[in-house]
């Protein structure tokens, strides 16, 4: 499965970023082979609707599941309309790196986000 | 003459001063008050108008005809607010993010998008017992953007032939007083746009000074003449005088911190009803604006 993880840095060994729409990078990793590429988040500088834009971007890149720390309502709606699974990194483990989340995904340890996890933010 | 009463910080006394200015001005001239704080208008609490007219405010939002749409994605591409998403062969529209620019509707190769009005608030207008023409904007609960309501308020009443006649029939001199929203964001800039003069109400506290700096930045950017009114003088030690001197901002009036004023205002009394001795000072401020604003 093609998994997208929101990241603070541009490798699989970099720190995870719990924000979805405003994470600087997404690491796109094949959960079976472990092959990965890193993509800068095109929504980083968006005036508003960063989650919507990031969700569309990941769908266009062929991601099938996302790992992040929180999803706003518009990001959640867009990800689900695009058929992506929304997974949550475990809470309270701030220092996680991308590879650890990949391992947790492979172990089936990541919880699915049942709904948007916050009310979203308004830009502009 | 159009005067904006702004402050940066909320709860500083904008409405107290704006309503007092309006009441004094109404003794000799036609006065219009626009309560531009569309998230929480409160000038009416002090001016007690009889609402006599109003209108819904809408903004256009895109609606997609699924029959015609090919999910080509052009609409989402051109939307700089990310209000549309094309995923899974369908278009999602997020009304909260839409600024109503119409680009998506215009660009759609299949002409599958049209715009529908979404009600975002309303304008209420009426007259106070002393003959002040008061209008306020009310943003609908849950709506994220106040600007459409604010813009409709600034253009109230909607231009019709009869309205343009009544404008030219306004007695001269004529004054419009805009009570600005708190803060230093887009709605404050929109309130300031088109004004001839600004009164900046502040209080001598660290918060007051901090927020005053923010709004002074905007006022200077817009090139508007401004005067400072210090409210609750005596409440704190922030160096407002030094800052104003440095910026070349005249301090036009000081209102001391007085418990009886706070009590009266909390009961919905206007400043002038509670403390009529301030009438000459307010009148003096008004005269000063009138003399110093060119073309007024």
From TrEMBL, chain A:
This is Dinitrogenase iron-molybdenum cofactor biosynthesis protein. Keywords: Nitrogen fixation. InterPro entries: Di-Nase_FeMo-co_biosynth (IPR003731), DiNase_FeMo-co_biosyn_sf (IPR036105), MTH1175_dom (IPR033913). It comes from Allochromatium vinosum (strain ATCC 17899 / DSM 180 / NBRC 103801 / NCIMB 10441 / D). PANTHER family: DINITROGENASE IRON-MOLYBDENUM COFACTOR PROTEIN-RELATED, IRON-MOLYBDENUM PROTEIN. The keyword ATP-binding does not apply. Residues 14-89 form the Dinitrogenase iron-molybdenum cofactor biosynthesis domain. The keyword Cytoplasm does not apply. Pfam families: Nitro_FeMo-Co (PF02579).
Automatic annotation (TrEMBL), chain B:
Keywords: Iron, Iron-sulfur, Metal-binding. InterPro entries: 4Fe4S_Fe-S-bd, 4Fe4S_Fe_S_CS, CobQ/CobB/MinD/ParA_Nub-bd_dom, P-loop_NTPase. One of its GO terms (molecular function) is iron-sulfur cluster binding. It comes from the Bacteria. Residues 60-89, 90-118 form the 4Fe-4S ferredoxin-type domain. This is Cobyrinic acid ac-diamide synthase. It comes from Allochromatium vinosum (strain ATCC 17899 / DSM 180 / NBRC 103801 / NCIMB 10441 / D).
């Amino acid at each position: 499965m093609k998994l997208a993880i929101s990241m603070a840095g541009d490798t699989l060994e970099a720190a995870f970023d719990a924000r979805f729409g405003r994470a600087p990078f997404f690491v796109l990793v094949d959960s079976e082979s472990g092959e990965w590429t890193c993509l800068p988040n095109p929504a980083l500088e968006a005036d508003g609707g960063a989650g919507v834009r990031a969700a569309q971007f990941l769908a266009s890149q062929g991601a099938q599941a996302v790992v992040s720390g929180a999803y706003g309502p518009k990001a959640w709606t867009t990800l689900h309309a695009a058929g992506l699974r929304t997974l949550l990194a475990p809470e309270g483990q701030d220092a996680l790196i991308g590879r650890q989340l990949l391992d947790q995904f492979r172990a089936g340890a990541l919880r699915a986000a049942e709904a948007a996890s916050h009310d979203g933010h308004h830009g502009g | 003459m159009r005067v904006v009463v702004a402050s940066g910080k909320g709860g500083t006394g904008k409405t107290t001063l704006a309503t007092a200015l309006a009441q004094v001005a109404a003794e000799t001239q036609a006065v219009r008050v626009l309560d531009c704080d569309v998230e929480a208008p409160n000038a009416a609490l002090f001016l007690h108008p009889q609402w006599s007219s109003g209108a819904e405010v809408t903004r256009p939002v895109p609606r997609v005809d699924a029959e015609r749409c090919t999910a080509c994605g052009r609409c989402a591409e051109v939307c700089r607010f990310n209000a549309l998403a094309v995923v899974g062969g369908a278009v999602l529209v997020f009304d909260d993010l839409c600024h109503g620019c119409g680009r998506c509707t215009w660009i759609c190769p299949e002409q599958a998008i049209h715009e529908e009005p979404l009600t975002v608030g309303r304008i209420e207008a009426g007259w106070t017992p002393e003959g002040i023409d008061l209008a306020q904007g009310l943003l609908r609960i849950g709506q994220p953007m106040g600007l459409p309501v604010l813009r409709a308020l600034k253009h109230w009443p909607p231009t019709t032939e009869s309205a343009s006649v009544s404008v030219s029939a306004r007695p001269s001199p004529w004054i419009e007083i805009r009570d600005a929203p708190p803060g230093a964001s887009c709605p404050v800039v929109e309130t300031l746009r088109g004004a001839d003069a600004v009164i900046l109400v502040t209080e001598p506290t660290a918060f007051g000074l901090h927020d005053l700096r923010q709004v002074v930045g905007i006022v200077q950017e817009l090139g508007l003449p401004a005067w400072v009114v210090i409210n609750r003088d005596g409440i704190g030690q922030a160096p407002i005088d030094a800052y104003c001197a440095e910026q070349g901002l005249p301090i036009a009036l000081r209102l001391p911190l007085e418990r009886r004023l706070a009590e009266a205002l909390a009961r919905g009394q206007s400043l002038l009803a509670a403390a009529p001795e301030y009438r000459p000072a307010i009148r003096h401020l008004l005269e000063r604006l009138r003399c110093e604003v060119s073309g007024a």
